[in-house]
Amino acid sequence: MCASRFMGLVDFQSTSSSLCTIKSSASSYHRPCCHSFQRTQWRVTCMASTVQVKVTGDSFIRPHLLKLSPYQPILPFEVFEALGSMKFPFVYPDPESRRLRAALAQDSGLESEYILAGCGADELIDLIMRCVLDPDDKVVDCPPTFTMYEFDAAVNGALVVKVPRKSDFSLDVELIAEVVEQEKPKCIFLTSPNNPDGSIISDEALLKILDLPILVVLDEAYIEFSGIESRMQWVKKHENLIVLRTFSKRAGMFIV
Ligand SMILES: Cc1ncc(COP(=O)(O)O)c(C=O)c1O
What is the CATH number of domain 120-244? Predict the structure, then answer.
């Protein structure tokens, strides 16, 4: 057993755990040896240049992710029937979702080159953050609103600057402008109609925010229930605008 080659004192408390040896200098790194031990306390003597590290699955996870409260999922819906009826389930689907984007272009009137298909708005929110944010970058959130923006920002190591909505749930555009000037956030997530209150962001407010040096992500998950038109077409005019739409509310298809 390689423990006999070590010098120094290391205490390990373990329930059937693995111990690996790692030498401190890269040039003298030697092949790790691993052993399984039953619940016991270990006092191991090791050589000066050798440290012992207890490796658990969690040790690989970024520390700030370990601090997040776990997401509480609902039970998944039955999808096996649909999957079972797929013609070529063993072939990777088109990564560019060309047929779907062509259909969406027809439905929305916006050309397909402006459209990116994702696995629900949730995935797109996360993808946007991963593309845009470096750790410690700032994101503006306007609560009360959909909580995934805050959650995904935490997952992506970003800082959330909250600009609460006014008592009538409208956006505090002046405060948003101040925050953008002072905190230099990279992006802002806006929801219209808003979850939970259903309030709509006016053209005037949206145009003022689009004039700021910030990426604006406008989440229109509930637009079909509002009686107003989507701002999808606005992306042609405003380079800093992304509009999110989803089938999950419009068609009750939470898996698309
Ligand atoms: C405002 C808002 N955006 C996005 C989503 C998530 O959409 P999807 O089901 O497409 O991931 C929700 C879900 O509740 C939502 O309320």
Answer: 3.40.640.10
